[in-house]
Amino acid sequence: MEVCHSAPPRARSVDHNGSASNIRASATYALAWSAMAKRKAFVAYGVRVGRHPGVYSTWDQCKAQVEGYARAQFKGFATTEEAEAYVQGRTPAKKHRVDAAIPNTQGIDGHAPIIVYTDGSTLGNGRDHPSAGYGVYWADPAHHSLNRAERLWQGEQTNNRAELMAILTAIKLHPDKSRPLQICTDSLYAMQCLQTWMPKWKERGWKTLLNQDVKNRDLLESIEAAMNTCRYRPSFTHIRGHAGHHGNEMADQLANQGARITDT
Question: Which domain of life, per UniProt (predicted)?
Fold first, then answer.
């Protein structure tokens, strides 16, 4: 389901004649904007035209990209896949809403994927000495010896870095690189970095649209190098955090354990 095709126009968007059609259009956009802000069921928001086009997980993030931006185009969606397809200008295959949280089990070339769940955690966020950790949980019990609960020792102690480190660790631990690897994460930030933003950042010399240095470049480059060692490029599935999904809940527990590890 989707609503809201553009940001509400500013007052100057109504022509000097103040025609009834323009006034009605302004009212329609305003109502759509209000509906988007109030709706709670959206999983992702796609910004096709705005300050930083991409997929966002909250209305506030989406609003920051389109409010006051001339001719902005954006929509809210029930799945991340639909939002990504909208941003890329294509039509996604119709799926039942819960499919966004169900890993693919068909695989590639007849090879069933190996499914892994990753998560990051930061304790004491906003305080003087936060501590971040990450968790890696493998769906197949045969691979549980590869589960990890680790502390993030290097770099800023942020949740985003922990999420990326979990993904990097999962790829490095991939037990059979001749088979597809499906990484299930609740981090839209990580998915957007690796699937949407990174190619553009690389073209600009690892600079954002605002000509600022890209954060977490070291981890992103390491993940890219690790993915290139796999026969099949790892795929990503967005899992809604804290929604009762066993694999995600286990990865979350491991990440919290990792964040509590002390340097002793």
Answer: Eukaryota
Other Cβ atoms within 10 Å of 33 Cβ, number:
20
Alpha carbons 194 and 235: distance in angstroms, whole number: 10
Q: Is 140 a catalytic residue?
A: no
Going from the C-alpha of 1 to that of each of 88, 90, 198, the distances in angstroms are 18, 16, 28
**Is residue 186 annotated as a catalytic residue, yes or no?**
yes
Question: What would the 3-class secondary structure string for 132-161 be?
Answer: EEEEEEECCHHHHHHCEEEECCCCCCCHHH
* Annotation marks residue 252 as catalytic: yes
Q: Which of 81, 84, 150, 163 is catalytic?
A: 163
pTM (predicted TM-score): 0.62
Burial class (CB in 10 A: 0-12, 13-18, 19+), 264: exposed
Residue 174 contacts residue 232 (beta carbons within 8 Å)? no
Which one from 119, 133, 238, 247 is the annotated catalytic residue?
119
163 is annotated as an active-site residue: yes
Q: What is the 3-state secondary structure (H, E, C) of 102-115?
A: CCCCCCECCECCEE
Q: In whole angstroms, how large is the CA radius of gyration of the chain?
A: 21
Domains of the chain with bracketed CATH: 11-98 (3.40.970.10), 102-259 (3.30.420.10)
120 is catalytic: yes
> Which is the catalytic residue, given 16, 96, 129, 242?
242
- Write phi, then psi, for 46 (nearest 5 degrees): -100, 130
Q: What is the pLDDT of residues 204-262, one digit of tens each?
A: 999 988 888 999 999 999 999 999 999 889 999 988 877 778 999 999 999 999 999 98
